[in-house]
Amino acid sequence: MDTGIGAAVTRKEDFRFLTGQGNYTDDIARPGQAHAVFVRSVVAHANLRSVDTEAASAMPGVVAVFTGDDLEGVGGVPCGFAPDGGPMNEPPRPVLAQGKVRFVGDMVAMVIAETLEQARDAAEAVDVDYNEIPAVVSMEAAQAEGAPTLHDLDDNSCFSWGIGDAEATDAAFARADHVTTLELVNNRKCPNAIEPRAAIGEYDSAHDSYTLYTTSQNPHVIRLLMGAFVLGIPEHKLRVVSPDVGGGFGSKIPHYPEEIAVTWAGKQVGRPVKWTAERTESFLSDTHGRDHITRVELACTSDGEFLGLRVHTQANMGAYLSTFGPLIPTYLYGTLLAGLYTTPAIRCDVVGVFTNTAPVDAERGAGRPEATFLLERVVETAARELGIDPVELRRRNFIPADALPYQTPVIVQYDSGNYEGVLDRAAEAADYAGFARRREEARSRGRLRGIGFAGYIEACGMAPSNIAGIIGARAGLFEAAQVRVHPTGSVSVYTGSHSHGQGHETTFAQIVSDRLGIPFENVDVVHGDTDQIPFGMGTYGSRSLAVGGSAICKALDKIIAKGKKIAAHALEAGESDIDFESGEFRVRGTDKSVGFGDIALSAYVPHNYPLEELEPGLDEGAFYDPANFTFPAGCHICEVEVDPETGTTQIVNWNAVDDFGKIVNPMIVDGQVHGGIAHGVGQAMLENCAYDEESGQLLSGSLTDYCIPRADDLPSFHIETTETPCPHNPLGVKGCGEAGAIAAPAALINAITDAIGVAHVDMPATPEKVWAALQSAQGE
Amino acid sequence: MTLTVTMTLNGESVSAEVEGRTLLVQLIRDHFRLTGTHVGCDTSQCGACVVHMNGQSVKSCTVLAAQADGAEVSTIESLAENGELHPMQQAFKDNHGLQCGFCTPGMVMSALDLVANNPDPGEAEIRDWLEGNLCRCTGYHNIVKSIAAGAQAMRS
Ligand code: FES
Ligand code: FES
Known about the structure:
Chain A has 19 helices and 28 strands. Chain A is α+β, with helices and mostly antiparallel strands. Chains A and B meet through helix 1 and helix 17 of A and helix 2, helix 3, helix 4 and helix 5 of B.
């Protein structure tokens, strides 16, 4: 069976998951552990008159009750990004509220007890006296003259940022024949990984060291942030373990106050402290995604040539800055506004606003779905207004394949791709030519059929560290890997990437097996433990294969180079005459060879070994910093049928063609696209994180009120890939985790608006909204 | 107040002292330490906690431990034998019906109940049956394929 690069190998990790032997954070029971429950603010905005813990402390089984006063001196939760390095309003975020609460769910106190039930009971007995302040829930309310301020600042603004040439853009609009304008809301989402967040903090007094088990996508980042910026624990005294993690979707990137609280409390109470979120807590306190209000204008000539694009966006930051909050609506957003097109002049202005809502951070796609949504909506709308076929309009404006690499007017340089080729293939797969007939047929059944396109491009493989630094990230974005060849030739790979569903244990093992010519079974991948892995920046932004996989390749190159030296000695040949192929070191032009396993053995049993030139052992580490972002691109085409009586939308066809560069495991890639589309469909049709405008109460705080897609909301998908290899990483890969979530919302809303003949329907396009839009269109 | 619950769990007779409010899922996970059954929500929506009780799938977060007194309960841990996956588990592996694996035990247990009642379910029937099982990773495409393939393997 082929298990190399390109093979659809079934996954190594599946056996343990399928037999109930996964090891998720909540499955861990540390000896002597106590249970923590957080008392969370029930109001959106208030000064705290008092937090009375006396009654709670006296409850059965209670070990300790802590409030913000107890944590005085402990640093606040840090933010990892300021656009362009600042200026940015960056108010402190205490771990437990100090004098004030700023959103429903803000943590006020921590109750620790012998059992979870006892901790819950005691949490009920904590008496919080709130002196309420009017809440600012919408961005409009937060920016109103004289609005109450959340923080000790003049107003509720966080940053004001822009990208692109404003003058050139104004000039483009001045000479346009046609301007298409849309006002769009990019609705707030709750990521809702099915595994709720959890954390266990533990202090070992014998070694004066700490361990945190946590549901994180990036344990080393948590170690760095919490150790260096919050608790002052040096790295060698702090171990962060993220074992099996049940989905992330961005919500498990940030460093959360609960992680700090349990780690700190573990030492205070002298025993492990465990916390697991209930789903309601996840809704209240996981970071949310999206939440933009945008005005977009596209300037064209009468025959549809794009001349300029102007975007104004208000981005909700929530009550505090989460780890990457300000990165998402700035550099992960504005830099993608060229899309697949040659639009020569682009200007985008963004303001970040504080409101009395949960902090906003990355959610699958993070910034790029927002950019793609506005761009593909405005392009589709322009096509309708100009009376040009939407496929044809896109074609007229595509960056031609021979123009790549292509410098966009918004900083990034696309490296490779064939956008027209992708669209052509997708249109063929979707039988666009036959759509008119299908529409007629649907009409005869009383259904309104529509088709919607979304081309997208995304910047993945984050990120070249020098660029990350220039744009304001307070960290590098390389990846680390260690490849340890054992004496008998089996291999352990230690990666700084973190798998929470992506299948790294399989994909990375395929790479190693392929490169070293050893059986797939002989390779194991280790991730998620800062004590085992040299370093890591974690998994998000479709970076694992492009950056983490490249780091593994780099380490493999070192293994092979060292292996050649050992082989040269063993075969009594010059090092430069040794070739390595299919697991054999061979003297070029001869039949003399030695197998990889023999070389491994002689590295650890160095009886016949060049000890004067080379250390024993075969164990190599590498750090890889990418030269550029990667740029996956593709086209998704969605066909819907709307029931005009009820406004119900049914997705009847979904065709996607994506270019992810080289593919290591097509089965896993397809799965990533499916999951991504589901997130995008959820956003466009079903999901909305809603707060009451007056009180700031979360209205969609459970899975009964917040609708994530169920099996019968979705169709089966037809997906294909095309391949233009990424020219600057050793695998030629681009990343695939976010594509579906980026493309799907625009494709779906384009299809629905096409079906019912209206300019726009806001997401989520619920039956109620679709029906109302249809009524108003018919009334006109 | 505590009470004693006795039941057959994965073929073995077990008993435990529980509180009246203890849920079956807590008993399974925290007391008997079978952590393959998961908790994904607090409103009986996600189905990560599905086990079989007296041969039928139930959401173990919605059953009191006390209600399982005298019952036969089986969990995901009971399916594979001597390291051999059950055909439904194998079908999930072969069809990439899982990613993070968190919903998976509930999906498999739920699928087995479907197939017990409908040995040859079609796509629409599978999608309909999965109403009470949420997956955030797969978009269901491969779960639907897995269940159809698992059902077929179990028929032959
Ligand atoms: S835990 Fe969600 S339904 Fe049981
Ligand atoms: S595989 Fe992750 S929730 Fe289903």
